Predict the structure.
Amino acid sequence: MRKVIHSVKVGIALVLVSLLYLLDPLFTEVGENAMWAIMTVVVVFEFSAGATLSKGINRAIGTILGGGLGCLAAMLADEFGGIGNAIVVGASVFIVGAAATYSRLVPRIKRRYDYGVLIFILTFNLVAVSGVRADKVIRLAKQRLSTIGMGFAVCIFTNLLIFPIWAGDELHRSTAAKFDKLARCLEGCLEEEPNNKAENLGAKVKDCKSVFHSKSTDESLANFAKWEPWHGKFGLSHPWDKYLEIGEVLRELAALILSLGVCVQSSRQAAANQRRAIREPCEIIGLSLAWILRELGESIFNMTRCRAKALIAPKLEFIKQELSRLGSSLQIKGLEKDENLAMATLTFLLMQISENVEVIAQEVEKLGQLAYFRTKNPDV
């Protein structure tokens, strides 16, 4: 449905901006420069409000700075005249183009302002190399800037006022959903014999892999969310970077769970009777870790403080005790070399997962403090 809404909004925006051509009074004012407004809508209009604002503001800043410097370069070249005109224009294009291109390689600028720098280079070259008189250059820059502003205004009006889709909401929901995906995958790895659940585990592992490959999506959503105005429960200073830190730890956890899935499905596992001996404690540990992950995910989704000290810390302490007891029992049994290695690998991965979950709990608690999540009613 959101894709349908986005498509309808793009159609509305194109109709509105086309009025610059269709209505004679408007066409008389802007003329053929109305094409720049249509191009702005096609290029700037994005799925989320934050992406549209990011592209629109970048395009406006790049156009203003590029047009302004281009005008200065054109006026300076016009003062020299003749061969001096070409030398000044060529030198300015080389210096500005090289410096702006280098800035695009700086990670922080590339992350947020890459499109703006690109438009700056394009606008500067179009204006500086136009070769017309300075007064015509200024008039051309004003006309294009005004029509681009009209197109951007139509994009903002349509995207933010008609069923807006917020990148911040999407990042918030997707981060909370990752906890449940990892919890289901962890349960699938430990709840029963792997030979009887290959298809079911495969579907859950697919969700786990989606978490593992979510870095680029999360970074894009966080970048767009920083451009968005206040909306719903998210203020201007909402700590979107903390979502990226949580996502990074979740991807580490996803890698560990995937390794655990490979371990339990390995053909070099211990004998069936020996696996059954540790099956129950492993299931208890898996259920406890899954419960903690779901509790943390619900805490983020409902924007409530996670009860790390009251509920999560005792669970993690219990898990550590179970893992210690399980490791001791494996040493006492004196298994064969391959069997001992398989059991030790399983225990080690569970220990690493529990430590990773503890780190995630701390990060979620910090997010609640920075974002001023409400305190959950202890009686509920």
About this structure: The chain has a mean pLDDT of 81. The CA atoms of residues 4 and 10 lie 10 Å apart. The chain has 14 helices and no strands. The two ends are 34 Å apart (CA to CA).
